[in-house]
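Ticket #4471: structure output looks truncated?

Reporter: J.K.
Steps to reproduce: submitted the chain below (277 residues) through the standard prediction queue, then opened the result file.
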Amino acid sequence: MSTEDRATGPAPGGLLLCRADPASVAPAAQLLREPMVLTRAGPGWSALVPEGRPWLDGGEPVDRVLAGWATALAVGAPWPVLALWWDADRAGYTLAAGFRRPVGYVWLANGTPAGEDEAMRTFAARLGLDPVHDMQALEHLTAPDTGADARARLRGLLAVLTRAGLTLPPDLTPGAASGRLRAAARVRPDAEEIEWPGRRDALRAARDAVGSTRLGPWLPWAATPKARVLALTQVAAGLPLTAWGLRHRSGGWLVAGALLLAHGALGLVYDLARPRD
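Returned output as attached by the reporter:
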């Protein structure tokens, strides 16, 4: 019997939903060094389906890994990243946007809310959702409902996001095993396999993808005062994140911290190497 068919309950799994086109997401996703399948999920949305070895083989909590990946993807990107995750006991989400503190919500397996209402309000505000109609639907997800389990709550969350343009492919269903999700994503005509191409090629691709955006003056190769400030901030934030990931053996947060440190160090190197007037 495979890991995903074990009798102890549904296997853990997760999805990463990025509010950006696949062409912008692919270079950033390569830096995670995790095999994933990338596909479009509606106008201005992309879905990343990870292989999931950190929680399937490594025993790491799926929520911690997905939160770390979402944070790493969102750092330095002009678009937010929503991580959906589930296991035999709980399900929930983490929303990461830039350097702001990630926000998340959790439901127990039977659908019992186990999060803070304020998280839903922050979630709606950061995604630009309707403060009346969408917020009412989100508040319903935080109220007791004996007819909705944790996965039904995630489907309700996705239903709200359809009004923001998200159209998740039918077979990418929250609660499904990681292998089934990847198989469903692979058969889509726009599916793209994301793999680690090597540090130099990945950084070059990421630079080309975002260099022409409004983030240009903040990027390390710009060698501007803004880039210097950002580099110092990334190093300051990356050190404790990396230490926390090492202490708790969390691959997701370790990746997030390492990316911050690498990006910040790169910015400082560019700044020191720049000719002075």
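Triage note (M.O.): checked the attachment and the full token line is present. The longest strand covers residues 90-96.
Status: closed, working as intended.
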